[in-house]
Amino acid sequence: MKKKESAANVLYETAFAEYGSALEMLAACKQAIKVREVLGFFEHARDEYIHTKKFLSILKKQGGNLSNIVARKYKFVHIGALKKGYVSEKGYLIETKKMKDFVAYIYTNELIAEDEFSKILKYFEDDKESTDTIHSIMKDELRHHGMARKYFLKYYPFIQPYQLMIYKYREYLHNKGRKFYFKNFQILEKLFTPIYFFVSYLVSLPLRLLNQKEFSRINKNLMDISSKSLL
Ligand SMILES: [Fe+2]
Ligand SMILES: [Fe+2]
Predict the structure, then answer these.
(1) How confident is the model at residue 150 (pLDDT cuts 50, 70, 90)?
(2) Ligand 1 center from residue 18 Cα (angstroms)
(3) Distance CA 139, CA 25 (A)
(4) Is 13 left (phi over 0), alpha (psi -120 to 50) or beta?
(5) pTM exceeding the 0.85 threshold for the entire prediction
(6) Phi-psi bin for 229: left (phi > 0), alpha (psi -120 to 50), beta?
(7) Which CATH entry fits the domain spanning 3-193: 1.10.10, 1.10.1270, 1.20.1260, 3.40.50?
(8) How far is the CA of 81 from the centre of ligand 1 (A)?
(9) Which of 2-16, 106-120, 197-211 is the least confident region?
(10) Are residues 121 and 134 in contact, defined by beta-carbon separation less than 8 angstroms?
């Protein structure tokens, strides 16, 4: 994949990840009871929506460097967050995880996000505006990480150092696993697509020998036709 398209691909996936986080935070906001938590989750959701918008605006700019056919692949459709697995079909994290695990998940994933965004910067070395935008998003992620840490220390003070470390490495491994799967999926797709087209072509060959006139329904009593018939 060329550098310009790779950049578009990374921005596209990141926008979905941010949008998925916004939905997760909004779901958590709806479930929270304490006013401080409602406000905290609401502000976090708002930040993630803003991040999505910012990544999409950089993607839009990047789209200008791509051909129309390639750029069309990167059209943002909201349902993609579900289809791509950024939001689980089983439900929102706040519904499927215990509160402690949910906060630990935010704690580690905000840190991973900040780390991932630092890698996106390499695509925009000559674009100061985009670099500044990504830096500001990275700052927000560190703030989110800090908020989750504070919450964890306040409500689960006895187990935190040991458990947070396990959570952190577990999520790092999950993240690496997801990337590995995605990379291999792309390679397999490239490998199997020509085979798939070739097999489809072979299957279509006998169909050319069929006399299509036999398939005409005009002036035929359909009740007389055998149930095994193709008609
Ligand atoms: Fe974010
Ligand atoms: Fe965040």
Answers:
(1) confident
(2) 5
(3) 18
(4) alpha
(5) no
(6) beta
(7) 1.20.1260
(8) 14
(9) 197-211
(10) yes
